[in-house]
Amino acid sequence: MNQLATNLDGLSQEIKGVKVQDTKLQAFQANFARIYQTLAQSSREIANAVASLRQTQPTGAGATQAKAMQAKAQAATQTALKAAQEESRSVSDLNGYCKAQ
Questions:
Q1: What does the alpha-carbon distance between residue 93 and residue 25 come to, in Å, rounded to a whole number?
Q2: How far is CA 72 from CA 3, 20, 48, 96, in A?
Q3: Most CB contacts within 10 A, which of 37, 50, 55, 75?
């Protein structure tokens, strides 16, 4: 997951680095960069939660910590799913815009 996050960070930076004149395409560019940054952050949060879960004991304080890490992983997963859905909509919107041009 950390490698995925690193790759998504790189993709986001590449997208930001493309020179675009069209203002509508600039908006798409910023949106895609933001989406991939969100996915990268969510991937890191999931990886950190899973790593923490692997190190906790299943009883006592470890069980409480495990529940907290599980909740963090689930929240990060939901954020990633929303970003992925937004990415799909944005791809469709971008394709529609380009076809109209």
A1: 11
A2: 19, 37, 9, 36
A3: 37
> What single letter denotes the amino acid at residue 75?
A
Q: Which amino acid is at 36?
A: Y
Q: What's the distance, CA 21 to chain centroid? A: 26
Burial class of residue 9 in the structure, from the number of CB atoms within 10 Å of its CB (0-12 exposed, 13-18 middle, 19+ buried): middle
Backbone angles phi, psi at 22, to 5 degrees: -65, 125
The model's pLDDT over 37-83, given as tens digits with 9 standing for 90+, comes to 999 999 999 999 999 988 888 788 888 888 999 999 999 999 999 99
* DSSP labels, 44-56: HHHHHHHHHHHHS
CA 83 vs. chain centroid, Å, equals 6
Amino acid type, 51: A
8 Å CB contact between 60 and 80: no
CB neighbours of residue 14 within 10 Å: 11
